[in-house]
Amino acid sequence: MTIRIIQVDDDYINNIANERLIKKLGISFESVNFLDPSEALEFLSKDEQKFDLMLLDINMPRLNGWEFLDKYKSIAGKFPIFMLTSSLDPADQRKALEHPLLTGFFVKPLTKEIMLEIFDIAKLTVLA
Amino acid sequence: MSSDFFTFSETPFFKSVSKSLILVEVMVFLFMLFQTGAEGNLFYLALLQSSLHVFVYFLSRVSRRNLYVWLIPALFALMMYSNSFGGLKVTFAGYTISLVFYSFFLIRNKWQSFFYMICFILLSGFSEYKKGVEFETILMLVIPGIGFTALFYSALRFLQKAHIELTVRNRELEQSQLNLKTLIENTNALIWAIDTKYKFLNGNTAFSITFQHKTGVLLKPGVNVLEHISSEKEYDFWKTLYDKVLIGEQVVFEEQLVDKGESSVFWEYTLNPMKLPNGNVYGATIMAKDISKKKIFERRRQENEALLNGVLTNMPIGFQLFDELGNMILMNESMKDILGIKKPEAQTDVTFLNVFHDAFMVLNGLDILFKDVYLKGLNKNLEMELDFNVPENTWSTSRRKIFFELNVFPLYDENHRVIAAVCLSNEITKRKATEKLMLDQNKRLEEYAFTISHILRRPIANIISLSSLIKSDDMLNPEDAQLVEFLNESTHQLDQILKELNQNITIKPDYFNDYKNHSS
C-alpha cells in the first residue's frame, strides 16, 4: 500500500529530510510538497485526490499554519493533519491541542520514532 | 286712679329706703365704671342693673304714672339683647328682670303686674340659666330692694377673682425670680448689675465673694463698686468701661491673668446696658466668665491647624483644594514646583480653568473628572502628561515634558454634601521614563526570544535531522561516521542550550499569580 502524504512547509530542506526519513523506514509513499501554503490551498480545493496525512508547518511567510487551517476549514478534507514546528513556544502546543482540525503536534526535527508514531496515530498500516 | 301699692310707695318710709338704695347703687355704678380691665357676665349684669335702677328711678319721678315710660328701658334692653351695644356680652336676664321690676311699679293693677313679673322672671331665668348666669344671681336681682346686694356680691366676686389672679401672678413672679436667681447662682460666671451711679444693684454670690476678697468690702445694694478699687489704673480701666456701657454700648473683652501657679487664666467680660422702654439707660449688667479651657482648646486647635498647614505645605506631594465651581483655593509648594509656578507669582486665587484652559481640560477629560467628583462623589485616579513647551502652557516657567499622577476625591460637610475637591498630585516623570525603558527593553527581549524560538531553531532542527539521516547511512567509513556522530552530538547540545535560554527569558504565565492572590 502506498501512503499519500502532503507536506506544506516553506523549508524545502525539511521536506526532503522528511521524505528521506520515511524512505529509510522502508515505507512505500508518495509525497506532494508545497512551499507556499496558498498554493496548497488552491491545489486542495481543485483536486479531489485523497491523502492519508498532512504535515503542516506553523511559521511560514504570508500565511502561517494557523491561518492556513482557518481557510482550509471551508475545504474540509477528511484526512489527519499533523502540525510540525521548530518553535519552542509552549503557547503553540496548547493552541494545537485545542484545534479541532489537528490530529497531532510535534516539534522538529522528526525522528524515526516520531514518524512511526504519526503513522500509528493516523491509523496507517506500515511495514517498518 | 289710685292703688294700695302706690299709696305705700308714697309713704316716707318707702321714699327714704328708695333714696338710700339709689344712693348706694349710684356709688356702686361709679365704682364699677372706673374698674379697668374688669370682665365677665356678673360684672356687666350688675353694672347694667345699677344703671337701669338709677335711670328708671328718675324716669318714675318725672312721669310716675305714665304707662309707657317703661318702653325706653325696654328698647335699651332689646339693643343689648341683639348684641349691637358695642359688642358687650351681657345676658338678657339682668335687664329683663329689672325692666319687669320697674314695670311693676308703674302699672296700676299691682296683681296683674305681679303676675307678669313672675312670668318674666321664670321665662328669663329658665332661658338664660344655661348661658352662664347663676340662678342665685337671678333670684337676688328679682327681689325688689335687694338688687344692691347683688351688686355687692358681684363686686365681691370680681374683687375675689382679681385677688386670686394677683396671687397667682405673684407666685409666678416669685417662681421666675427664684429660677433666675438659681440660674445666676449656679453658673460659674460672676454676674452683677450697677446703676448709672456705679452703685451695686444685684449680683450673684460668686461676685460678692470675689468683690469682698479683692476689696474687703461686704457687697450690698447701693455700694459703689468703683470706690473700693484701690489701684488707680484698675479704677480708670473699669470707669471707662462702665461709662461706655452706661451710654448704651455693648462691650466684650478678654483678659489674661496669671495666677500663682504661673499658668494662664483667661476671663471674658460681657457688659450690656440696661434700658428702659424709652431707650434711656438705667444701669449695666456685667458677666465675667473663666474661658481658660476654651482658650487652651483654641490654642491647641491653632497649633494643630499650623501643623496641618505645615504638613500640607511641605509634603513632597502636590496638594490642591478646589471649591465646587472649580476654583482653586489652595495649592502647596510641591504643586507649584511640579507645575513650574514661580513662588513670587503664586496666586492662591488662580482658578483651575485659568491654569488649565478649557481645551486642555476637555482634551484630558478633566472637566468630566471634576463633574464625577462633585456630582457623583467618586474618587478619581489618573496619570497625565503635560508638555510645558506648547504655547498654551506659557504660565509655567518649566520648559520640559512631565508626567504626573492625580488623585482627586471629594470633601463632604456634615450633611454629606460635597463642598470641595482635594487633588493630590505626584510627579512620576522618572517612573514613567523608567517604565518606558523597561517596556522597550522587554520588547527587544521578546524579539530576541522569538528569534531563538522560531528563526534560529529552524536551521538547527534541519542540521539535527540531516545529521541523523547521514549517521544512519551505513555507507560512511568509521572515521567519517565518528565525525557525523560528533556533529550530531554538538548540534543536540546547541539545541539544548537554545531551549534553556528560551526558557530563561520567557515570562511564565503564572508569574503574577502571587500578587493577584494577595490583592484579591
Secondary-structure blueprint:
The complex is a heterodimer of chains A (128) and B (520).
Chain A: E1 3-8, H1 12-24, E2 29-34, H2 37-46, E3 53-57, H3 65-75, E4 81-85, H4 90-98, E5 104-107, H5 112-121
Parallel strand pairs in A: 1-2, 1-3, 3-4, 4-5
Helix pairs in contact in A: 2-3
Chain B: H1 4-9, H2 12-33, H3 41-62, H4 71-81, H5 92-106, H6 110-128, H7 135-142, H8 147-186, E1 190-195, E2 200-203, H9 205-215, H10 232-246, E3 251-258, E4 264-275, E5 281-290, H11 292-314, E6 318-323, E7 328-331, H12 333-339, H13 352-355, H14 358-363, H15 366-376, E8 380-387, E9 401-412, E10 418-427, H16 429-471, H17 478-505, H18 513-519
Antiparallel strand pairs in B: 1-2, 1-5, 3-4, 4-5, 6-7, 6-10, 8-9, 9-10
Helix pairs in contact in B: 2-3, 2-8, 3-5, 3-8, 4-5, 5-6, 7-8, 16-17
Sum this structure up briefly.
The complex is a heterodimer of chains A (128) and B (520). By secondary structure, chain A is of the alpha/beta class.
Q: What would the average pLDDT of chain B be, to the nearest integer?
A: 73
Kindly state the mean pLDDT of chain A as a whole number? 88
Name of the top-level CATH class of chain A: Alpha Beta
Number of DSSP-assigned strands of chain B: 10
Oligomer: heterodimer
Structural class, judged by helices and strands of chain B? alpha+beta
What would you call the shape of chain B?
Answer: elongated
Integer tally of domains of chain A: 1
- Helical residue percent band of chain A: 40-55%
Write out the CATH superfamily name of chain A. Answer: Response regulator
Strand content of chain B: 15-25%
**Beginning-to-end CA distance, first to last residue of chain B:** 127 Å
Question: Can you offer a commentary on this structure?
Answer:
The complex is a heterodimer of chains A (128) and B (520). Chain A has 128 residues and is an alpha/beta fold. Chain A has a single domain (3-114), classed as Rossmann fold (3-Layer(aba) Sandwich). Chain A contains 5 helices and 5 strands. Chain A has helices at 12-24, 37-46, 65-75, 90-98, 112-121; strands at residues 3-8, 29-34, 53-57, 81-85, 104-107. Chain A has a 5-stranded parallel sheet, with helices on both faces. The two termini of chain A are 13 Å apart. The model of chain A has no long low-confidence stretch (mean pLDDT 88). Chain B is an alpha+beta fold and 520 residues long. In chain B, 57% of the residues lie in helices and 15% in strands. Chain B has helices spanning 4-9, 12-33, 41-62, 71-81, 92-106, 110-128, 135-142, 147-186, 205-215, 232-246, 292-314, 333-339, 352-355, 358-363, 366-376, 429-471, 478-505, 513-519; strands at 190-195, 200-203, 251-258, 264-275, 281-290, 318-323, 328-331, 380-387, 401-412, 418-427. In chain B, helix 5 (92-106) packs antiparallel against helix 6 and helix 16 packs antiparallel against helix 17 (478-505). The N and C termini of chain B lie far apart (127 Å). The model of chain B is unreliable at 1-8, 36-42, 63-70, 81-93, 127-141 and 143-149 (pLDDT under 50). Classes of the chains: A alpha/beta (128), B alpha+beta (520).
